[in-house]
Amino acid sequence: MTTNTNIRELVLDILIEVNEKDQYSHLVIRSVLDKYQYLDKKERAFLTRLAEGTIEHQIEMDYMIDSFSKVKVRKMKPLIRNLLRMSVYQLRYMDAIPDSAVCNEAVKLAKKRGFRQLSGFVNGVLRSIVREGDKLLYPDAAIEPKRYLEVKYSVPGWIIKRWMKAYGFEQTETILSNFYQESPLTIRTNRTKCTPEELQTRLINEQVTVERIGKIPAESGEFKDALGRLEDYAFKISDFDHLQSLQTFQDGDFYVQDLSSMLVAEMAAPKKGDYVIDVCAAPGGKSSHIAELMDGTGMVEARDLTEYKTDLIEENIRRHGLSNMKAVCMDATVFDRDSVEKADILVCDLPCSGLGVMGKKTDIRYKMTEAKEKELVQLQRQILKTVIPYVKENGTVIYSTCTIDRAENEENAAWIEREFPELSLVAMKQMLPGEAGNDGFFISKFVRRKHE
Ligand SMILES: C[S@@+](CC[C@H](N)C(=O)[O-])C[C@H]1O[C@@H](n2cnc3c(N)ncnc32)[C@H](O)[C@@H]1O
């Protein structure tokens, strides 16, 4: 049975929070779903799809609206532009909803929210899109390739420009279309609690569909071997309502992680008894993986900036039952004399622009700017400069990010080599979305040579 809540109005408020008040969509959507717990499964699914879909296709929606409205989107009242965006999304992407229902609901909402005088305008724009929208073409790829990709995939022009320069038009289009692929949720077995086969059985008993990850094509070398090892204990899961309510989740039998991120611990290749420092560790995905690989031996010091973040790490340590991992609140930009030459493995999975995960974090593309990205490159270098002395002779340094931007990745790896001649780059890989897992991810691995 559906409730009487106006889901469209909730979505409208979500869009206003995200687009006009600079809030993150996944946090706003989660808090609305938490507040309206009584919504039934269908309503929750509709709310999530409409909110996420509208944000994901926002530039395309604006292009359509601007093509049929005299007043441009950026000049409209915030409530009206967001109402139009979510209505056009329904017209274009939600075939089961009759066009007339979309228009009527939008008009009702405009009136309800105090814009009676603009309800005719809303109706007019939407009815024109119903009549003529199908004939509207994307910008011509041959004439305006950047604008074509920008509108078709709703990714801001500055990002497209950088990627076209780095990867060329065709590969950029492949990257962008991979962001829109349905992505399976991947998990790795916590082998300190159960075997992969036991986990599989437990999940099946909870009516979850579990599949092996299968073979991922990769060139030879360290990455291929690391991916090969993951095949033994990583799975794809689907057909569950609420992950956190699964007993296997509560028991810490698995950790949800993209395959590309799982490669960090496998590439770090910890030995039993190693001392590991992860300088930016929350919520603890890579740290807990390394701790599991060391099987109760050694120690992983998982550091992060705030207590809120170290609490998240603590929660993961507790749930996964890890005796060889601890959370420490520490600012990675501040030099810690006591850590010098302490680590066999130093993990630097640093704050980054996150553009490799825009398939999951839908609004990151609108929040990131070129100026913010430049600042991030500086922060990454500042952190690296501060923490690299923490690694022992013959120790390993991992520098990774969840972006596909060269300035933060390859260029920073080259900077590390220049700045720290005692470090040798032994492996480096830029994974593009859909290549190994669903995220775009970068890993580089260095070894600290003996003092001369
Ligand atoms: C990419 S995330 C780390 C993800 C984590 N490695 C994992 O796999 O679960 C980057 C982290 O860096 C932390 N961070 C940002 N600035 C920091 C600083 N100055 N010192 C320590 N941690 C910082 C953020 O709080 C965030 O949790």
TrEMBL record:
Subcellular locations according to the entry: Cytoplasm
Record domain SAM-dependent MTase RsmB/NOP-type: where: 175-452
Keywords, alphabetical: Cytoplasm, Methyltransferase, RNA-binding, rRNA processing, S-adenosyl-L-methionine, Transferase
EC annotation from Swiss-Prot or TrEMBL: 2.1.1.176
GO molecular function: RNA binding; rRNA methyltransferase activity
Top-level taxon in the UniProt lineage: Bacteria
Purpose: Specifically methylates the cytosine at position 967 (m5C967) of 16S rRNA.
Protein name as it appears in the record: 16S rRNA (cytosine(967)-C(5))-methyltransferase
Lineage: Bacteria, Bacillati, Bacillota, Clostridia, Lachnospirales
Gene: rsmB
